[in-house]
Specification:
15% helix, Nucleoside Triphosphate Pyrophosphohydrolase, alpha+beta, binds zinc ion, 288 residues
């Protein structure tokens, strides 16, 4: 496998682009029935059709409160795609289910996960951008983008997306994995962290490995990226080569870090549809 490569993973636009046409904020919404992205806490409301879980489709579901103001974010399979959030206290009728929304489950297909991710990010941005962080003035939506304009000082605010680097380190025929204490027993993943000011993504990857594990790396190579809407990250994936050092775990960040061989990986790996798993599986296939 040659890097960088398009990461064929949910949450990236590629997973829905054939059937999704985005609608610019503030433009005239199409009318009529459509598909419904309804978030309730960390769950997505889906309708149960036999074994299949799908976005509710048709008129507005009856359990939506009257105060709810759904927003149309585009067309999905030719119909309006409506998005809204409801309180955790609302009871969902039997025909629907509140499905845990994350990359670990396997009941939601990639497209549903990707559309739900868009809704998560937009709703998060709307909740966090009600007032200007400069002067405290009220913010109003800008037409044609997700930006918000301060009515008092005129400053334009745009959605804050937080870049993170995530990296697999190779050493001969082994690779470095780390675990956090809050993870399930036996699960290991890649070293990752948020970008600092004045830093490239490659520098961020190398710094995180050094800080968290004491290992110095070289040849940091970009491999692909994934939108990670929990709530608003961009994960930039890298592979790097070991240069020097022995493992010294930063116990504030990690519980353990160790070298694994491709033949004997840990029992638990990151969620199946995460870029972390994608990088690890490609490495385990061909050692690259
Ligand atoms: Zn302001």
């Amino acid at each position: 496998m040659r890097y960088p490569s398009t990461v064929d993973l949910p949450f990236n636009h590629e997973a829905v682009k054939e059937h999704f046409v985005p609608l610019a904020p503030g433009s005239r919404a199409p009318e009529g029935d459509g598909h419904w992205l309804i978030l309730q806490g960390n769950s997505l409301i889906v309708s149960k059709t036999g074994e299949k879980l799908e976005l509710p489709c048709g008129a507005a579901p009856g359990f939506l409160p009257e105060t709810c103001k759904p927003l149309c974010i585009g067309l999905w399979q030719g119909l309006p795609l409506w998005m809204t959030a409801i309180s955790r206290s609302i009871e969902i009728p039997d025909f629907f289910a509140a499905e845990a929304f994350n990359a670990a489950g396997d009941r939601l297909d990639d497209a549903t996960l990707t559309l739900g991710g868009m809704a998560m990010q937009i709703l998060h941005w709307q909740r966090k951008s009600r007032f200007c962080s400069g002067c405290g003035g009220a913010l109003t939506p800008m037409t044609g983008s997700w930006g918000m304009l301060c009515s008092a000082c005129g400053y334009e605010h745009f959605p804050s997306i937080h870049p993170c680097s995530i990296v697999l380190v190779k050493r001969d025929d082994r690779f470095l994995l780390a675990r956090k204490s809050e993870w399930l027993p036996g699960r290991y993943g890649l070293v990752a962290g948020f970008l600092d000011m004045g830093e490239s993504l490659e520098e961020c990857a190398a710094r995180e490995v050094l800080e968290e594990t004491g290992i110095v790396v070289k040849n940091v190579q970009y491999v692909g990226s994934q939108c990670w809407p929990f709530p608003s990250q961009l994960m930039a994936g890298f592979v790097a080569e070991y240069e020097s050092g022995e493992i010294m775990v930063d116990s504030n960040e990690l519980e353990d870090a160790r070298w694994f061989s491709r033949e004997d990986p840990p029992e638990g790996l990151p969620p199946a549809r995460s870029i972390a798993r994608w990088i690890i599986e490609r490495y385990m296939l061909d050692g690259e």
